[in-house]
Amino acid sequence: MAKKEKEHTKYYNARGVQVPSVTTVIKLLNKPELVGWANWMGFKKIKVDDILDHSSEIGTMTHALIERYIKKKMVNLNNVGDDYKYIETPDVARHCFKLFKRWLKDMKPQTNKFTGKKTGGKINFVFSEIQLSCDDYGGTIDCICWIDNTLYMIDFKTSSGIYSTMFIQLAAYVQLLKRNYPEYEVEKVAILRLDKKKDKYQFKEMDYEDTLLYYKVFEGLLDVYRSMYLIGEIKL
């Protein structure tokens, strides 16, 4: 099974110069919720690196299953491959993939028989796991799709919650897409969180106009990243 490349793939601009990934730049932010969690894990004598590594492995396998499905390749849940370290990973990834399938089913157009309100919409996938770069940074976009007549950019997460940094990430991806494929004008971005432990998913969306403020945050982080790179505090 292919490795999830967001954290490890090297990105180069048109001049052949290596540029940082979106996730690398966003890591400059101090995340209080992670600091508190790490301290608590340390108090309980649980190795934080192992937990993060396991979570990353689950995300990797889940993304690979979803990518195969979107690209109309066979998805065999009884054989998800042997490229994993933790014995629980396949079962959790299968669980998350089933939640993705449930979201697809729930998104089908339907009308409330009491209120007449219409929900959902027909989904047509455009891109899946597309690697892009521009002059300043690069990244991999999980999914671009049409939901009815609205173009969405969706990021799949297997995290324990939805955080503002995820929308900073999506805001950077939207601008990255515009520089590479200006013909695709994203109207909404969304996080589809697939709960690793519970039988539920969470879908949180945002209008394109609202991502612009988040992109300003990313631009600020990118300026800090460049400065730290120039003084030798960061290496690509």
Key attributes of the depicted protein:
single chain; 236 residues; alpha+beta; Lambda Exonuclease, Chain A; 5-stranded mixed beta sheet; 6 helices; 9 strands; disordered N terminus
Write the layout of secondary structure elements.
Elements: E1 11-12, E2 18-19, H1 22-26, H2 32-43, H3 48-70, H4 89-106, E3 110-111, E4 118-119, E5 123-133, E6 138-147, E7 150-157, H5 164-180, E8 188-194, E9 201-207, H6 208-230
Parallel strand pairs: 7-8
Antiparallel strand pairs: 1-2, 3-4, 5-6, 6-7, 8-9
Helix pairs in contact: 3-4, 5-6
Describe the protein in words:
With 236 residues, this protein is α+β, with helices and mostly antiparallel strands. It has one domain (31-230): Alpha-Beta Complex (Lambda Exonuclease, Chain A), CATH 3.90.320. Helices cover 42% and strands 22% of the residues. The protein contains six helices and nine strands; from the N terminus they run ββααααβββββαββα. The strands form three sheets. The protein has a five-stranded mixed sheet with strand order 5-6-7-8-9, sandwiched between helices. A two-stranded antiparallel sheet has the order 1-2. β7, α5 (164-180) and β8 form a beta-alpha-beta unit. α5 crosses α6. The chain is globular and about 60 Å long. 26% of the residues are buried. Residues 1-6 and 33-41 have low confidence and may be disordered.
